[in-house]
Amino acid sequence: MSLTEQSVLDSLRQYADPNTGKDYVSARWVKNVRVSGADVSFDIELGYPAKSQIDAIRQGVIGAVKGVPGVGNVSANVFTRIVAHAVQQGVKLLPGVKNIVAVASGKGGVGKSTTSVNLALALAAEGATVGILDADIYGPSQPQMLGIGGQQPESADGKSMEPLQAHGLQVMSIGFLVDVETPMVWRGPMATQALNQLLKETNWKELDYLIIDMPPGTGDIQLTLSQSVPVTGAVIVTTPQDIALLDARKGLKMFEKVGVPIIGIVENMSIHICSKCGHEEHIFGSGGGEAMCKDYGVPFLGALPLDIQIRKQVDGGVPSVVADPEGRVAELYKGIARQVAIAIAERQKDMSHKFPSIVVQNT
Ligand SMILES: Nc1ncnc2c1ncn2[C@@H]1O[C@H](COP(=O)(O)OP(=O)(O)OP(=O)(O)O)[C@@H](O)[C@H]1O
């Protein structure tokens, strides 16, 4: 086989991405192949953040092309470019935000906020620009979980707000604006208006992903939000308890109803490991989350143990992914984040900017 662009592409088909299992030629992530004499260079444009894996991927693709007879020097430029993907029909993307992931739960207290913040931090750790919007009107906990409680956003023009910064994330929370100690009684329209304002009047800066920590439950507020916010996909958090699973099913149906794809389900507090003797116990039952995923044909993203460190770290303002980045729990969150990013990368890209907006005018 002589050295041509085609023979380079054929050799690259032999290398499967370590996360998607697919080759980059089929994914159309190979760009700018150049053959000059015996030397070859090309770009691999990953659709998901992979800072910790870029070197290994570069070695892998170079190795694949080195197998072509007659090849000399091979150089590969591997980088990530995250683009905006399609959202519900008729809903416009937000300026400065490429992809929105709604993290929801059918009921409160299952660990939705803990999962949201660790997911956001895991995406950021892999090199993405990430924001988190705490829309949990019933118990805004992100300011405390990120160690920035008591702070307030600044506004230069009196109309829009600057997000706060914590552990590399851009952060906005309903908790910055209301007194967390005296929870307000939110009526539906008031809550959705406040949350929409919070989302749209924050100066998000070039976000690859915005994680929204949704209010728990599946009532009117949640339904209106999932209809009006441009969501790329939803992650549902549940515990293995029957009652939580039942509520999670309602959450799943709510998103389906409004045309938001479900990225997958995270099972939290899945297994308790005794910190003294290491004994493992399924306090809330076992296998429920996975069974639910099978029933509904949605991916099971992973399970987090009921672990005192998770609680201590997040409640102390330094979530596990930052507190112990190489630890077992951080690895679990990173695995979930990777699946979320890949699911988004594989979705249809946003094409709305390619079409002119049609304005009907009476002249
Ligand atoms: N896997 C876990 N192991 C131990 N503690 C956890 C775990 N996940 C969450 N927690 C703790 O459980 C409590 C509730 O978690 P969190 O606030 O994330 O739940 P939530 O679903 O967002 O609740 P709500 O919707 O009511 O605000 C927190 O104190 C948190 O630290």
From TrEMBL:
Chain ranges of the MIP18 family-like domain: 5-75
InterPro entries cross-referenced by the UniProt entry: FSCA_dom_sf, MIP18-like, Mrp-like_CS, Mrp/NBP35_ATP-bd, NUBPL-like, P-loop_NTPase, YlxH/NBP35
Gene Ontology process terms (BP): iron-sulfur cluster assembly
A single GO cellular-component term on record: cytosol
Keywords: ATP-binding, Hydrolase, Iron, Iron-sulfur, Metal-binding, Nucleotide-binding
Binding positions (ATP): G106, K107, G108, G109, V110, G111, K112, S113
Signal peptide: none
Pfam families for this protein: FeS_assembly_P, ParA
A molecular function GO annotation: ATP binding
NCBIfam families: PRK11670.1
Subunit composition and interactions: Homodimer.
Family membership: Belongs to the Mrp/NBP35 ATP-binding proteins family. In the N-terminal section; belongs to the MIP18 family.
Purpose: Binds and transfers iron-sulfur (Fe-S) clusters to target apoproteins. Can hydrolyze ATP.
Full protein name: Iron-sulfur cluster carrier protein
Organism: Zoogloea dura
